[in-house]
## 1
Amino acid sequence: MLSIRMRAELEGRHVSGAERLIPAEELDKAVKELIRRPKAYDKLVITVEKVKGIHVIPKALTIYSYDFKSVEEAHSFAVELLKKEGVPEELSRKAIELLKRGANPEGGNMRGAVLMDIQTGERLEPDQERGIRTVRVDWKDRKAIRRLLRERGIKKHYIDRLIDALALATKNVYCGVIAELCWSDDPDYITGYVAGPNIGYRRIKPMKEEGAPLGGRVYFVKSEAVVELIECLEGKAFLIENL
Ligand code: PML
């Protein structure tokens, strides 16, 4: 199997990223598809790597979707859900504030996720500009999953992001992330989610105001398991079989 990763930049800023885990004979098709993903870029990097030892996840986290009238209501709902995974309100609020103002200490968005200690709220990622990136995860049959989501009434506009984010969130739980908070840094995409082993994948709209360019991911984690967790998130390869 091959891991194909794409990342695109515009004026030095990360604007798009995606990954596929595919058999070698599908390389051309996957590259063609990935280079069409970013709306605009001045630099695009494709990385192709051989991967061995693929783990199979039979079923993704269960999807639920909610609409709210305001970002405040949406955030309060997210905070309540995170409590079900043991995240104290104070830390959920701290994570929300972090994503709102840009979690990169140099300003703006990070490429990867923040790792937040679920006990102390301390940030545990070794490099706070880069963060931790969940990679090496894909669907066994992406086309079939896309079809199933369309049948469930998910609109075309949401499908690509939903498929990728659900795969990431599912792998995160398998690696031992206790809960996750996410919304996109794309100014036109205001749906975000919280996820965890008990709550599944809860899509929530609007997690930010229309046009806001800041977003990202916060993973709530146990500090004692952080080395193994990073190894799993960045190193182990997973294929998800079904919804
Ligand atoms: C992203 O694309 O950066 C995050 C997308 C989060 C929400 C995806 C969804 O379920 O619609």
## 2
Amino acid sequence: MGVVPLKEIVDRAMAERYGVAAINIVNDLTLESVLAAAVERRSPVIVQTSVKTVRSIRADVLIAMWKAMTAGIEVPVSLHLDHCPDRAVITECLAKGWNSVLFDASLLPVEENLRQTIEVVAEARAHGAHVEGEIEAIKGVEDDVGSDEDSRRQSLETSVRFVETSGVDVFAPSIGNAHGVYSATPHLDGQRVSDIVAATGVPIALHGGTGLTDEQFTDLISRGCAKVNVSTALKVTYMTSNLAFLRQAEENDKWDPPSLFKHVAADVTAMAAGYIDRFGSAGRAW
Ligand code: 13P
């Protein structure tokens, strides 16, 4: 199927009530490994880049990698810019070919957030791209963006007005979820997801996927969380897999980089395939 607009992926997932893994990659190896998992499981997948990753690798290099690695791919895939408060980075990524962006103006007053989100939606549309919006910061710092403070939740009325007036394609409410590693299983407000979906029909992005239970995923996906974000799990898998291999390499005094890459890629692919299976999107490629 190949590269498709974000809306095509999330609208189908929402209608059929499965979740699509939206996985933050950090380099070429993790990008290739996540795509390999989607192909292996015959699943749609959303690949995400944080602003930190865009800055560390550069947008032109990332998009060249994306185009090369998705050429001829047989499952639906989409490239998304995660939490971005910086309009210049949004403009650059949209111009270069990202399929969607999360404009994160959650630290601004809702009215100013709405005013700017309307502009970002118009900018995205000019590129055939889509927009995720949020009006409450998701707790936890993710690649230097965010805060460890709980943010104030807005009323249902404010959320619905934001979604309807801004024209965002996906909405990310705060429901007790957080980025990073949970110290205990969080209490999530699934009713809030159901209420927003009932009022707007817009697919919901569930942030902070790492560490949630299968029951939480199943419940929230059935309520309309069509996009499920996972970042920390990839970072942990990537780093610990490298560490395990390098410890062994040191012990054996055997230093072969391609063997390291193969080992880490297999672990990252297995991690991504595990989430795809848990979210119910395996076999859903069209
Ligand atoms: P985790 O880092 O908790 O997996 O959350 C990912 C996320 O929500 C990215 O926006």
